[in-house]
Design goal:
Layout lengths: L4 E11 L6 E11 L3 E5 L6 H8 L7 E6 L2 E2 L4 H10 E4 L12 H11 L4 H14 L15 H13 L5 E5 L7 H16 L3 E5 L3 H7 L2 E6 L2 E7 H5 L2 H5 L7 H11 L13 H9 L2
Parallel strand pairs: 3-8, 3-9, 6-7, 7-8
Antiparallel strand pairs: 1-2, 1-4, 4-5, 9-10
Helix pairs in contact: 3-4, 3-5, 5-6
Length: 280
């Protein structure tokens, strides 16, 4: 067993409907434990399908998934344990929230694990406080704003103390304020050692946030590697309709004009670029 990797996909295939057109066509990749991995690619490239395979909602037609060194098993007991340890926050929180109140929503999953009620209540209270949910804890989940629903969706998963949290476009349909809030929550989870997988179309954010980037194209892994290395590869990004992040484009132009020198590591955000300029 290689402790460096928490999830490994080996020749993963999956097809919807009649099985003639595969959504996953031989996916091979390894996810490093405790790291932040951004999944990028056009709609239909297989990101969401791969995520659903990771916690057993979908079962591959061919190939296998390894979690913590063990192949996934699909009996009821094994799937319940897997879904406790690998949680998914869906792109649309309305597909995830169904209880009468926020408190009941967050309690539902942990109580279904058979945790004693007193212990479960304590865990729920800790998550509510940690994610700043207290002001709307008794409100109906469907009455919340998009950002608040996202908070509750993350709380649903976090209360079960997973090893991996998968976020499918967490900033989708959010305004800038709520996007910043959700991103801050995700950063806190990563700082606590949880392995994070995130689908995003925002290449600028992926460069700043991710340790690694996986580029998917037509059901296959086109590339996987260090975020900066992937983001500097213009030809590779073009195959998935992505462009080099704006901060790297600006850095490259400043270097061409001899305002900056290509020394050391290129900047991943505006603050790092400002520091380079100030040090001239």
């Amino acid at each position: 067993m290689n402790d460096d990797f928490i999830i490994e996909a080996r020749n993963l295939h999956f097809a919807y409907d009649d099985g003639e057109e595969h959504s996953l066509k031989g996916v091979d990749l390894k996810i490093r434990r405790g790291k932040k991995t951004a999944f990028m690619g056009a709609n239909g490239s297989g990101k969401s399908t791969f995520f659903l395979c990771c916690n057993g909602i979908l079962r591959p037609a061919l190939g296998e998934l390894i979690f913590n060194g063990q192949p996934l098993r699909y009996d009821r007991k094994s799937l319940l344990e897997l879904r406790r340890r690998v949680g998914i926050v869906f792109q649309d929180p309305d597909n995830q929230l169904f209880c009468a109140s926020v408190y009941q929503e967050i309690s539902f999953g942990i109580l279904n694990l058979g945790i004693p009620e007193d212990e479960a209540r304590q865990e729920v209270e800790q998550v509510i406080e940690y994610l700043d949910i207290t002001p709307f804890r008794q409100r109906p989940a469907q009455s919340l704003s998009g950002g608040q629903k996202k908070q509750v969706s993350i709380a649903d998963i976090l209360v079960m103390k997973p090893d991996v949290i998968i976020l499918d476009e967490p900033a989708a349909a959010l305004d800038p304020r709520h996007t910043k809030m959700v991103n801050a929550i995700v950063d806190r989870l990563a700082d606590n050692g949880i392995t994070i997988l995130m689908a995003t179309h925002d290449i600028d954010y992926a460069l700043q946030w991710a340790d690694e980037i996986v580029l998917m194209h037509e059901g296959r892994v086109l590339a996987q590697g260090d975020a900066l290395t992937i983001c500097e590869n213009e030809a590779l990004l073009a195959k998935t309709n992505l462009e080099v992040p704006g901060i790297l484009q600006l850095y490259q132009r400043l270097c061409k004009k001899n305002i900056l020198r290509k020394e050391g590591t290129p900047p991943r955000n505006l603050r790092e670029l400002e520091t380079l300029i100030e040090n001239i």
